[in-house]
Design goal:
Length: about 220
């Protein structure tokens, strides 16, 4: 017999013959802690249920731009444009160019060094689907044991490919008509997909968007 049914039967037995007011007083006196527990459980259910239904959703596509010109307005426009083009929820597409940091052999002025740790933490937690990086940093990531996906399973169309170790692992963005200026170049600018990323379909759509979409507007 369930806990609730047992208590209801107990109350009925002990309040038999009592009037309505007496029953209410008895219940409040001897079962207030039970009612408090039920009320607390109901509140928690509402809070967690609301968080699940209406709270922030996990991104469907996250792309970070490393050591290029930071422009939040541009990033937001690009994210919204890609989301609308691809049929994704705009609030679940994130493009962020705030990743300005120094690394071994390369010093950035005005860097926010905390973003170095943030970048690799997100990589390790499978929170990065795509990265836009310069060629030198691409190889630094590999030195840090960061694995990039092979593009063999993707349809890259006419996009120029960047080969590494005999396999195509990035798309060269330099000279692409849909790419807005992101800053000074120190080697080729590459679009690559970290091996820990989980949204391969969105990555494929981003490749198609670069060729067919109207994105990367100033």
């Amino acid at each position: 017999m369930s806990f609730i049914k047992k208590n209801i039967r107990d109350i009925k037995e002990k309040t038999a013959g009592m009037g309505r007011a007496e029953k209410a007083g008895y219940i409040i006196t001897y079962y207030w802690y039970h009612m408090l527990g039920i009320a607390a459980a109901a509140v928690l259910l509402v809070i967690f249920g609301g968080h699940i239904l209406f709270g922030p959703k996990e991104p469907e596509f996250t792309c970070v731009i490393v050591n290029q010109m930071t422009d939040d307005a541009r990033d937001d426009r690009l994210a919204e444009d890609f989301a609308l083009w691809a049929g994704l929820a705009p609030d679940r597409v994130l493009i962020d160019s705030n990743y300005i940091f120094s690394y071994k052999g390369y010093t950035m002025e005005g860097a926010n060094e905390s973003y170095y740790d943030k970048f690799f933490l997100k990589w390790g937690n499978a929170e990065l689907d795509a990265v836009i990086v310069e060629e030198e940093f691409f190889h630094f990531c590999e030195e840090m044991r960061g694995r990039f996906q092979s593009l063999e399973g993707y349809d890259t169309g006419t996009l120029p490919l960047y080969e590494d170790g005999g396999a195509a692992k990035a798309v060269v963005l330099d000279g692409q008509e849909l790419i807005a200026p992101l800053g000074e170049r120190h080697g080729k600018l590459l679009l690559a997909f970290p091996g820990s990323g989980e949204h391969e379909r969105a990555c494929q759509m981003f490749l198609e968007y670069l060729q067919e979409g109207d994105g990367w507007r100033n």
